């Protein structure tokens, strides 16, 4: 299945400009249809939900439609969708809501490959006597070993937290296998899906994670985020909203201050877009709306990203000065199109600033996955150079990046 790149790029007005955007792990460009929906909400139904008058009822239906859209997107029930401003804030809400269930002596397993969003909120429980255990990646391979996870599990383990794909390494972790290990030990699994969600279809039924969070602004939409939680797990969580919300008020007890309605309505445009890609990739046949179209759309996205990743990885692999930080494979099952590297002892900052002149947007640093950078001695080079591509990037843009990189390597 292939993408019509002319159609794809026409959906993103920012791509008409002079810049090639390859910092998409920080935030993708936004679909025109998303912006149109946000504007439509603000200009026609910008009222509080829950009242009896018609505009309020329309607003309420629009928010409900957003939950339904993300239920299709994640293959779950609309009542299992929690929305918020960002993955960082949703994970903090989740951590707060688990306070009543985490007792002194209980244990949480964290990885050193995660973004701090899925580390910091859980560390706060140490002050209450909860024990943190670290699942660390290999010092040379940067890989998480499932045998190490099994060795960390015991009868006190209550929660395992892991990223689906590292926002530095690009490595795809085997979430279903991790879920099976966690559940066999009586623990729950919380997955940060931010760096995975723009690249592959999400299937909560297949992954069996208890909680899964991602940011819509990395997936062609506005600054908005979504968390899946298994219904029975959400019901058990503490209420973190007003005192008169009881524990059964899911998902609202986990959305203090209410969600951003215009972003919820606008975000539907991102789901619709992937469905449209799926229908087109199948030639209009064999992919209806909903899950089949979403899966077909992401299959086409994955193949486009594999091709451009292979192009860049082949170039980087040909340079003796380059150390790839993550897997060298471009296979769809191995990695997403986020590629990081260092250049000998050179400053990653200097490398990136060389590329700026070519109007190619890449980035250097630790990307809030600070622990893996610090623990693997990468601070000496100002972190890594990160090229984070998505499906609207082209082979020509990769070649432009390569030409800009060559003098610095």
TrEMBL record:
<dbReference type="InterPro" id="IPR011340">
    <property type="entry name" value="Cys_dSase-rel"/>
</dbReference>
<dbReference type="InterPro" id="IPR015422">
    <property type="entry name" value="PyrdxlP-dep_Trfase_small"/>
</dbReference>
<dbReference type="InterPro" id="IPR000192">
    <property type="entry name" value="Aminotrans_V_dom"/>
</dbReference>
<keyword id="KW-0663">Pyridoxal phosphate</keyword>
<feature type="domain" description="Aminotransferase class V">
    <location>
        <begin position="21"/>
        <end position="279"/>
    </location>
</feature>
<protein>
    <submittedName>
        <fullName>Cysteine desulfurase family protein (TIGR01976 family)</fullName>
    </submittedName>
</protein>
<dbReference type="InterPro" id="IPR015421">
    <property type="entry name" value="PyrdxlP-dep_Trfase_major"/>
</dbReference>
<dbReference type="InterPro" id="IPR015424">
    <property type="entry name" value="PyrdxlP-dep_Trfase"/>
</dbReference>
<dbReference type="Pfam" id="PF00266">
    <property type="entry name" value="Aminotran_5"/>
</dbReference>
<feature type="domain" description="Aminotransferase class V">
    <location>
        <begin position="295"/>
        <end position="401"/>
    </location>
</feature>
């Amino acid at each position: 299945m292939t993408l019509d790149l002319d159609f794809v790029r026409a959906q993103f007005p920012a791509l008409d400009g002079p810049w090639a955007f390859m910092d998409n792990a920080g935030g993708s460009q936004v679909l025109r249809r998303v912006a149109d929906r946000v504007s439509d909400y603000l200009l026609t139904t910008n009222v509080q939900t829950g009242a009896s008058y018609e505009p309020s009822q329309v607003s309420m239906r629009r928010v409900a439609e957003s939950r339904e859209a993300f239920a299709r997107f994640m293959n779950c029930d609309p009542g299992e969708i929690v929305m918020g401003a960002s993955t960082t804030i949703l994970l903090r809400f989740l951590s707060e809501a688990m306070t009543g269930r985490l007792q002194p002596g209980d244990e949480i397993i964290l990885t050193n490959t995660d973004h701090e969003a899925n580390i910091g909120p859980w560390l706060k429980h140490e002050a209450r006597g909860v024990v943190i255990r670290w699942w660390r990646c290999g010092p040379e391979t940067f890989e998480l070993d499932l045998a190490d996870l099994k060795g960390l599990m015991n009868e006190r383990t209550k929660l395992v937290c892991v990223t689906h794909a590292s926002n530095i390494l690009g490595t795809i972790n085997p979430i279903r296998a991790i879920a099976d290990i966690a559940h066999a030990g009586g623990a729950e699994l919380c997955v940060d899906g931010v760096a995975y969600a723009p690249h592959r279809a999400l299937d909560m039924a297949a992954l069996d994670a208890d909680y899964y969070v991602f940011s819509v602004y990395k997936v062609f939409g506005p600054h908005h985020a979504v968390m899946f939680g298994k219904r029975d797990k959400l019901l058990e969580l503490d209420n973190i909203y007003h005192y008169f919300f009881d524990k059964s008020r899911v998902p609202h007890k986990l959305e203090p201050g209410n969600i951003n309605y215009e972003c919820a309505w606008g975000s539907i445009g991102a789901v619709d877009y992937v469905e449209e890609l799926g229908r087109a990739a199948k030639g209009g046949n064999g992919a209806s709306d909903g899950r089949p179209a979403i899966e077909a759309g992401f299959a086409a996205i994955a193949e486009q990203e594999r091709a451009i990743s292979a192009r860049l990885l082949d170039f980087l692999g040909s340079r003796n000065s380059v150390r790839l930080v993550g897997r060298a494979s471009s296979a769809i099952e191995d990695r997403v199109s986020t590629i990081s590297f260092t250049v000998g002892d050179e400053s990653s900052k200097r490398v990136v600033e060389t590329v700026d002149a070519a109007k190619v947007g890449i980035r250097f640093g630790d990307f809030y996955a600070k622990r893996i950078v610090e623990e693997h001695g990468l601070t000496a080079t100002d972190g890594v150079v990160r090229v984070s591509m998505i499906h609207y990037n082209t082979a020509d843009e990769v070649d432009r990046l390569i030409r800009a990189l060559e003098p610095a390597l």
